[in-house]
Design a protein that fits this description.
Elements: H1 7-11, H2 19-33, H3 42-58, H4 61-70, H5 90-101, H6 106-109, E1 124-130, H7 132-137, E2 139-150, E3 165-167, E4 176-183, E5 186-193, E6 202-204, E7 216-227, E8 236-239, E9 255-261, E10 268-270, E11 273-280, H8 282-287, E12 289-295, E13 298-304, E14 313-316, E15 332-338, H9 346-363, E16 373-374, E17 380-381
Parallel strand pairs: 1-9, 11-15
Antiparallel strand pairs: 2-7, 3-6, 4-5, 8-9, 10-11, 12-13, 14-15, 16-17
Length: 382
């Protein structure tokens, strides 16, 4: 496998370069290696993709922080990124370039008519709720997806069966309308996509009755989405080509699955660890005991040492959530609370009174022990 070059080195930038400097350096390389300027040159195409990938990371503060800290490995698990950097392809690169730079007149410069590009279908965004149990191990979810797919009557062309398309009379099939304007400084010409045909250069003679010439119709399907362990609310997973189809077989948008962590009845999440609270009796805290406590995978046994104080935290190592960026598991933390009964039986009261007498005899006094601590200003507080 070819080792990727350092993004900063490839763009010719220092690591402290500003976003504007990143943008400027990328634009220069993108124009130099753009596929339309270098038709059939796979080397230039690879450099165009590499430059765009570097730009996509370094222009974004979150991705850049991960890259600065972990290198390319920090981008390999991709949840929450617009592009999957493990499979960044030419379509991704061209889409990113056009998104931030438009065509800069490249339609004329590279020989293609402005506006001739097909209209891309819109992305679909959905929110998927996950339990802590699902997050702890990762899960595959089945989603019922409604989207605009190719019309099954016309096959996505938008034309009625047996019909076809004709050259647009407004633009003469070029997809462009040219406007000439005379001024004191000379003659100026502007070029714009044809409004009638949308820059395609052709129009449908007999539109499909089902989709009314759009070439797309509402569909419903079930898809599988693999959720890695350790995700959090705010992460999202892009699924290429599962969005809406563009008009008349235009490029397909993407599906973006936003992840949301559901609240849990027992556990509170703390990073990759989980915390639960349990109550024990005074005798259990004093003498020690073993407890069966709930866990994300069933139940676990935890040993409560003799003399445990209320508020103590016991740790079950490796019983938490598997990390998103590694194989390590977090812990389960069990916070212990000593329960004080509000009502006691006559026998319990008798035993407690006897214990109280023993405590007084052992300490030699009747009262309480005040613990002293340092306050926030350094003064001692009582």
């Amino acid at each position: 496998m070819t080792r990727k070059r350092d993004y900063y080195d490839f763009l010719g930038l220092p690591r402290e370069a500003s976003v504007e400097e990143v943008k400027k350096a990328y634009r220069a390389l993108a124009l130099k290696y753009h596929p339309d300027r270098n038709p059939g040159d796979t080397s230039s195409e690879d450099k165009f993709k590499e430059a765009t990938e570097a730009y996509e990371v370094l222009r974004d503060s979150e991705k850049r922080a991960l890259y600065d800290r972990y290198g390319h490995a920090g981008l390999s698990r991709g949840a929450g990124f617009e592009f999957d950097f493990g499979g960044f392809d030419l379509a991704d690169a061209l889409r990113a370039f056009m998104r931030d730079f438009g065509d800069f007149g490249l339609g004329d410069l590279f020989g293609g008519p402005p506006g001739a590009a097909e209209t891309r279908g819109s992305d679909i965004r959905i929110t998927l709720g996950l339990t802590l149990e699902e997050i702890a191990e990762g899960v595959e979810k089945s989603l019922r997806l409604k989207r605009l797919g190719k019309c099954d009557t016309c096959g996505g062309s938008g034309a009625a069966p047996g019909s076809g398309k004709a050259a647009c009379q407004s633009c003469g099939g070029t997809g462009q309308i040219r406007h000439v304007q005379r001024t004191f400084f000379g003659q100026f010409m502007s070029v714009a996509p044809c409004a009638r045909c949308g820059g395609r250069g052709s129009v449908i003679k007999d539109p499909c009755s089902k989709c009314r010439g759009q070439g797309r119709a509402q569909t419903e399907e079930t898809i599988e989405v693999q959720i890695p362990a350790g995700v959090s609310t705010g992460n999202y997973i892009p699924k290429k080509g599962l969005g809406n189809v563009g008009p008349q077989s235009g490029p397909v948008g993407d599906l973006i699955v936003f992840l949301e962590e559901k609240s849990h009845d027992v556990f509170v999440r703390d990073g990759d660890s989980v915390v639960c609270d349990v109550e024990i009796s005074f005798s259990q805290a004093t003498l020690g005991t073993k407890l069966e406590v709930p866990s994300l995978r069933g139940t676990e046994e935890v040993k409560v040492p003799a003399g445990t104080q209320s508020g103590s935290v016991l740790k079950l190592s490796g019983k938490g959530i598997r990390s998103l960026h590694g194989h390590r598991r977090g812990d389960q933390l069990v916070r212990v609370h000593v329960r004080t009964p509000s009502k006691v039986s006559a026998r319990e009261k008798e035993l407690l009174e006897e214990l109280s007498r023993i405590e007084k005899t052992g300490s030699g006094k009747d009262g309480c022990t005040v613990r002293r601590r340092h306050g926030p200003t350094g003064a001692r507080e009582e």
